[in-house]
Design goal:
about 270 residues; alpha/beta; 5-stranded mixed barrel; 7 helices; binds 1-O-phosphono-alpha-D-ribofuranose; binds hypoxanthine; purine-nucleoside phosphorylase activity; glycosyltransferase; EC 2.4.2.1
Length: about 270
């Protein structure tokens, strides 16, 4: 067995020692969105430090543990904290948990994140369903020898985000009467936020929002043939003509304040998974 697959199996085996629950949906909780895990019933929480091969999660607003249990009757596993490239992780490390979740039984992945709104129509607190992304991290989790048991050497990326499940998330926004955009996420390496000129460039490239995560996870999901839905919360407005200062605390606070909208959308996806 190749190194990565062995690590995946060992992490999954360590999780199985802690709970019999076989999760069907995996949820990655972004900055300020970890509170959704508190709604999981019958929860088993496992700090990443108690699992093999996993680094500590160091990002602000990321608790760093896996939570397994039921959300609206659906068996789920939630990552309360993710691994970013700017924490010094390789793209492969930052995406490994996607394969672990699949090994545990997950068949759908829901990814959430905090992002800067580049589209001038976007306001702080608005959710954005990812329609597509642009990988400007210049890193890819699939670099290296491909393990054909995990997925194909050259995965198709023409539609990385599941349209039907995305529609269910948008329908929740319509039902609950809040604005939800559908747009393109630019994945940046970070940890600096972007300069005015960079935001202007990103807009010209066709991006609606920018963040420092999600892309490696979505690539791994595509590689592993896991349908994926991703939702950003716009935490700072960064159209170049009205750019102010941004801080990590401001981002976490804005994501937390708007988290009820993302929670409603995640629940709608769970209901649509059936
Ligand atoms: O994408 P998540 O993990 O939500 O976090 C976002 O917020 C942090 C910056 O404030 C970066 O980590 C960025 O990617
Ligand atoms: O403006 C941003 N840029 C990159 N990542 C982010 N995460 C939250 N806001 C931002």
């Amino acid at each position: 067995m190749q190194g990565l697959r062995q690590q995946i199996e060992e992490v999954a085996a360590a999780v199985r020692q802690r709970t019999d629950l076989a999760p069907r949906v995996g949820i990655i909780l972004g900055s300020g969105l970890g509170g959704l895990a508190d709604e999981i019933e019958g929860a088993t929480a496992i700090p990443y430090g108690e699992l093999p091969h996993l680094p500590q999660s160091t990002a602000v607003g990321h608790a760093g543990r896996l939570v397994l249990g039921e959300l609206d009757g659906m068996p789920v596993v939630a990552m309360q904290g993710r691994f970013h490239l700017y924490e010094g992780r390789s793209a492969s490390q930052s995406a490994m948990m996607v394969y672990v979740m699949k090994a545990l039984g997950v068949r759908t992945l829901v990814v959430t994140n905090a992002a800067g709104g580049i589209n001038p129509q976007y306001r702080v607190g608005d959710p954005m369903l990812l329609d597509d992304h642009i990988n400007l991290m210049f890193r890819n989790p699939l670099v290296g020898v491909n393990d054909d048991e995990l997925g194909p050497r050259f995965p198709d990326m023409s539609a990385p985000y599941d349209v039907r499940l995305g529609e269910a998330a948008l329908a929740a926004a319509r039902r609950e009467n809040f604005v939800c955009h559908r747009g393109v996420y630019a994945g940046m390496l970070g940890p600096t936020y972007e300069t005015r000129a960079e935001y202007r460039m990103l807009r010209r490239l066709g991006a609606d929002a920018a963040g420092m995560s999600t892309v490696p996870e979505a690539i791994a999901a595509q590689h592993a043939a896991l349908p994926c839905v991703a939702i950003s919360t716009i935490t700072n407005e960064c159209s170049p003509d009205k750019l102010g200062e941004t801080s990590g605390d401001e981002v976490v606070h804005a994501a937390d304040a708007a988290s009820g909208k993302v929670r409603a959308m995640v629940r709608a996806v769970l209901a649509a998974v059936g």
